[in-house]
Amino acid sequence: MIELVWLVPLSALVGFIINGLGRNLLPKPVIGIIGSGAILVSFVISCALFGEVNAARQAGETGVFTYHLFDWISVGSLNFSLSFLVDPLSAIMLLIVTGIGFLIHLYSISYMAHDAGFGKFFAYLNLFVFFMLLLVLGSNYLVMFIGWEGVGLCSYLLIGFWYKNSSYASAAKKAFVMNRIGDLGFLIAVFFIIATFGSLEFSTVLGQAAQMSSGDSTLLVITLLLFIAATGKSAQIPLFTWLPDAMAGPTPVSALIHAATMVTAGIYMIARSNIMFTLSPVTMQIIAVIGVCTALLAALIAITQNDIKKVLAYSTVSQLGYMFLGLGVGAFTGAFFHVLTHAFFKALLFLGAGSVIHAMSNEQDMRRMGGLKKSLPITYATMLIGTIAIAGIPPLSGFFSKDEILAYAFVHNPIFWGVGFLAALCTAFYMFRLLYLTFFGKFRGTEEQRHHLHESPWQMTVPLVILALLAVVGGFLNVPEALHGSHWLANFLTPVFADSQAVAQPFHLDHTTEYILMGISSLAALIMAFVAYSKYVKRADIPQEDGQQQSPLYNLSYRKFYIDEIYDALIVRPLYALSKFFYKVVDREAIDGLVNGLGNFFIVSGRGIRQLQSGHVGFYIFMMVIGVIAIMLYGLLNL
Amino acid sequence: MDSVIQHIQGIPLNHYLIFCSVIFSIGVIGVLIRRNVIIIMMCVELMLNSVNLLLAAFSAYRGDASGQVFVFFVMALAAAEVAVGLAIVIMVYRNTKSVDIESLSKLRW
Amino acid sequence: MDNLFILLILPIISALVLAFMKSTTISKWAALGLSLTQFLLTIPFLCQFVPEGAIQFEQSFPWIKSLGIHFHIGIDGISLPLVLLTNGLIPLIVLSTFGRSLKGNFYALVAFMQAGLLLVFTALDAFTFYVGWEIALIPIYFICALWGDGDRIRVNLKFFVYTFLGSIFMLVAIIYLYHQTPNNDFEWTSFTGLALADPTQRWIFWAFFLAFAIKIPIFPFHTWQPDTYTHAPAAGTMLLAGIMLKMGVYGLIRWLIPIAPLGVAAYGQLALILCVIGIVYASIIAFKQRDAKRLIAYSSIAHVGLISAGVFAWNQEGLQGAMMQMVNHGISVIGLFFVIDIIERKTQTRSLRDLGGLANNMPKLAVFFLIIIMGAVGLPLTNGFVGEFLLLKGIFDYGVWFAVFGGLTLILGAVYMLRLYQRTMLGELAEQQAGVVDIKGHELVLLTIISILIVYLGIFPNGLLQLSEASVLQILQEVKF
Description:
The complex is a heterotrimer.
Chain A lengths: L6 H15 L6 H31 L6 E11 L2 E9 L1 H24 L6 H20 L3 H19 L6 H32 L4 H8 L7 H17 L8 H4 L5 H10 L4 H8 L1 H5 L2 H24 L3 H21 L3 H28 L17 H15 L5 H16 L1 H26 L7 H6 L5 H16 L14 H16 L7 H28 L13 H7 L4 H48 L6 H22 L1
Antiparallel strand pairs in A: 1-2
Chain B lengths: L1 H9 L2 H21 L3 H26 L3 H31 L13
Chain C lengths: L3 H16 L4 H25 L7 E9 L4 E7 L3 H18 L7 H19 L3 H22 L4 H29 L7 H5 L5 H18 L8 H8 L2 H26 L1 H27 L4 H22 L2 H32 L10 H4 L1 H14 L6 H16 L1 H26 L16 H18 L2 H17 L3
Antiparallel strand pairs in C: 1-2
């Protein structure tokens, strides 16, 4: 089966090529079928691969397979091949990418049905899946980097999908550039890895890294650079501001790229290189701090946002922060588990939001919604499940994954737990706020919108229902021992994290403490849900229109802590000013002035010396005599 | 022939040198300060002839005939120069109605 | 069919034939046919080339015997990619002019220039090299000065005099070296085998460096370039940026570093610093350019800065990256300038202020432009990535911080290139451009070829890399410092 692994990305690529070339020729249904079918093929093969890996794990093997496709770049002793690695980690990631990818393709057929760029949209989506699969499947850092940059390109294309709106195009550019900042970190890290280990293959690099001592300075540099890369791709402080802007893209894109798959690439990459990180405690500490700060900051911003997609975007940033917190405190399985569950419920929430937006004739402002429960029963039910899951209320999936991370954080440092807990409180609040503002109370939209209200067609609701089911049961993949679970996911992933587990201090938390922590967080989430209920449903305290007087704290959150403005003032404007200065002063005046000055020197001196050529014969004769005398004097003096 | 040489040698060489220098200087000064082209050319002749005289004197004193050969060259050259020079002067006169050197100020870029 | 001399003489014959054609239609097709023939003649060399270090297809005729000058030409792994590039790009450049009506004399100048370029890339005799170096300069001066726009005479005078100034320094060094050789000749082998004293090598370094640095151009010798590129006709810009500046980089590898290794040891780091400054400096300037052509001109300074930095790093990755990237840069810069040319012809403007939303009416052009831009910013699976990766790896091995600063091109390049794309293609279409129609005919053909090359070389770069590998290894072994 492993010989067919190349078919997984190829299928998506073929879909991209057919849809890309035939985007104006093929009828829409055909494009939809090709686009979704390509991903379905990938998904089926991925399932088979997963089966194979699982069988190997059951048999007690590591379940790691590599497949060499061809040599890509070979220079001297360095040979970078295009080769694939299937192991427990990538097998699960494959399922997420292709499975959720397929559902979102299916959803898009209906969601994008009336868009002129239908063919283009599916081509881009397929291309995205192709690059994402390369990222996941790569057996070395370079192939991962292909995918890493490729998904950035697709993200750019899809955010700027409606390119006529120039602010959308700017958002796309912002995403690409911010990602590129991280990518530079990745590239430099790759050079360090080559210099240190002489190879980029995961097996070689990680194998050798496991032999190094903890706190090694090279590993510190490499891991810091890789973490910079991850902050770009996975939207962490300080590079997170692109993700909320990325909501300019069509909603299925937000679900697929900016929630479920691409943004988790950073976590995937760090989980993949876990041994290097475990051996760099300083980096781990930094990751944990950045992660938890991002989680809290984004959650605080999300509380006041009124755009339904913006809320979900900040929620994504916040949840990614959780995952980084998990990585930073050594809960690799927990972080990856959260990637998995988050993919389910966040894709669900985004698609649900899409369904709402679709029903509301492209209205995204929650202040114009309300009372949609009756018109959109399926959307409401599934979004309710998603909200409960993300809020961390048992027994839905979010509870298990978030609790595992928080438990590790508690053991590592109770402050992390405290901040993470605060962020969890905010999460529960803003998610239920979203739910109540959208589905409860009175309808606040226009008459026309009310007239149009309808439940979405089956292509849109089926993915919602499937994702809702997954969001309900996903948590049972990794039920902790304290709840008499089997820790299936942790066991399945053991080969990937074995080296780290050998090095790291064993996780130990007695069951009583764990129960208490679980109890506190679940109870708190319920309380926040109730608080939101009383504020937005009972008192119908709908957020005010822009321009009204607000408290400074509210403004701080509503204006996203002014981070965009700060970046603009500190980086963008100075750079543009520098650009003008370099061009107008340094280049034109100084350097070119020097060059032109040299030319002018000869022109001016020529003009001066030219005066000697007066045209008066008498003067010429005089000069001649002077010359003769000078020559004679020279001869005399020399003698 | 001997008598000519004796005659020449009858006067000390210094006298020739001083005399030729004076004539040459008169020629140079004439060229520099006179403005009439014809006079300038005459001054040039003066300079040439002073040199001729000196060449002849040295030739006689040192008993080397090549000095006198040079004199012939110089004379031929002077004749050619005068021919060309006067032709130019005539052309200039036709154009400017003047033989003043200042009228020849177009000789520049 | 592997007679190198024929390859050099054919462009001159083409130039003579084309010079007398008055009809624009006939002359453009004739020019295309002749340049394609030239390209086809290159293929036997590619097929028979043995990828090992030695110089192949060597030919040498006595030229001026009393001075020991030989017309000595040959190809090795360092010249072959550039010969291929020259002969491959000239047909594309000719094709790019099909939208304009030009007489035979224009194409004659292009063909004449091709001869000069090929002579530079194949010369194994310093005199022959110098002749080619200057021959290439004359036609491009006329191309830019006669068919350019704006303040073209002044700009091109500056370009000509500036580059010529550099060449003079090189000429002095060449004559000096000639007197040092044991048999008084100009042979490449005798020049490189001189092993001069350290102080001599130092000034020889500067003499050659000035010539090459002005041509490439390396910061701060670049100020002729934006003006010249901006005011040259599209085909002239393509010749300049696509092929001609590679003469400078080639000169660094072939002449400067092997002749004056001790000079490089003394000043190589300074040169590398200049290159890296140029990358960041030119990129930052490119941010705010309004003229699309000038923007690409500055981006070109940044790109060649990276290439030259890779050369001065003087290791295998750096050199092979430079070889690879020279080809890549040629391809993508031709694509970029061609797209700008198309836009200018259809909208009568290049100003980013007046453009926008062209993707609405020109979806095909938008796609090709995007592919070319992605190649230029070095996205993986495009050719630009392979080159930039190897170059940065080479520079990294030289010094980490150089690679970090050089790597900023990754970020800054994305900023100005995407700005260019956004300002031209995205947004609402301006009213006065409502009638613009999409590309077709020769434009489609040319952009398709370029896009295919960009993607093909990005996925299968090994073929090109192997061409130069053996020669690069050999030159690295022979020249150490």
